[in-house]
């Protein structure tokens, strides 16, 4: 007899494949941003602040991060459908921990984010970004994005389970998306014109994620950003997952 937990995970992965719209939306958004912003302001890539790697190398982490906000809503939407149809309550009779229902959906989102991150890096290479970090740098970047994206996915799922409002699935991702414009996303901190923006970017967690990705992918920046970024992503991932697992009780009680 098959393990019920395995069946739940396989079902979540099949649903991801059957409904790739959130993943494709994230990939489309990332491709649009990379192409348009490189065409609009990529001419500044000759400046010494970009380390001689070109503007696309600096911009590429933005493409990886931006895909998270569309891709990470899938688990919340899937759980909302299961709750509305009554399927979620029937699953509660299975001999597995109740948290497995949420974890399976988050795992499916994570798998999609990992694959999408590698796809964005491949697109960046086609657009001229030097992937000097090789396979290790690409896998490290995808892992960092997946860990952080899983936290956003889990937080979205927790919000939906606690409120029953599926529209909240994308709200959390949209709120975090705004942080991109308060980080050194398009230019290094030293080229930011406003002092207050430099200060805000220093406290922005997305700043460290993108700086770490630049180090791993293209060798730009300070290597010390990498452990800081993974610590931030781990905190978001673990915290969001814990919130989602606790929120399952709200649905079943």
Would you kindly provide a written description of the structure presented here, covering whatever features stand out?
With 253 residues, the protein is an all-alpha fold. The chain has one domain (4-252). The chain is 74% helix and 0% strand. The protein is elongated. The chain starts with a helix and ends with a helix.
SSE layout and pairing:
Elements: H1 4-18, H2 21-41, H3 55-71, H4 74-85, H5 87-91, H6 99-126, H7 134-163, H8 171-177, H9 195-203, H10 205-218, H11 225-252
End-to-end CA span: 29 Å
Mean pLDDT across all residues, rounded?
Answer: 83
Helical segment count: 11
How many independent structural domains?
1
- Helix content range: over 70%
**Gross geometry:** elongated
Query: How many β strands by DSSP?
Result: 0
Please state the CA-atom Rg, rounded to the nearest Å. Answer: 19 Å
**Helix/strand class:** mainly alpha
Strand content: under 5%
Order of helices and strands: HHHHHHHHHHH
Low-confidence stretches: none
Largest sheet: none
């Amino acid at each position: 007899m098959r393990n019920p937990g395995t069946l739940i995970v396989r079902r979540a992965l099949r649903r991801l494949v059957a409904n790739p719209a959130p993943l494709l939306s994230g990939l489309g958004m990332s491709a649009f941003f990379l192409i348009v912003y490189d065409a609009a302001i990529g001419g500044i890539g000759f400046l010494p602040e970009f380390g001689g790697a070109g503007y696309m190398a600096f911009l590429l982490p933005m493409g990886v991060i931006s895909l998270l906000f569309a891709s990470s809503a899938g688990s919340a939407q899937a759980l909302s459908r299961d709750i509305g149809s009554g399927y979620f309550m029937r699953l509660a009779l299975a001999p597995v921990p109740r948290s497995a229902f949420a974890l399976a959906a988050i795992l499916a989102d994570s798998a999609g984010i990992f694959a999408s991150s590698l796809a964005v890096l491949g697109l960046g290479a086609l657009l001229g970004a030097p992937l000097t970090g090789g396979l290790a740098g690409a896998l490290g970047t995808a892992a960092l994005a997946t860990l952080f994206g899983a936290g956003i996915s889990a937080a979205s799922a927790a919000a939906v389970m606690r409120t029953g409002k599926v529209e909240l699935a994308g709200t959390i991702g949209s709120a975090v998306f705004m942080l991109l414009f308060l980080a050194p996303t398009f230019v290094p901190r030293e080229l930011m014109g406003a002092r207050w923006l430099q200060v805000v970017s220093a406290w922005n967690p997305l700043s460290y994620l993108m700086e770490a990705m630049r180090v791993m992918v293209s060798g730009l920046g300070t290597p010390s950003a990498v452990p800081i970024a993974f610590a931030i992503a781990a905190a978001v991932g673990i915290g969001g997952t814990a919130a989602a697992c606790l929120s399952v009780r709200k649905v079943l009680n």
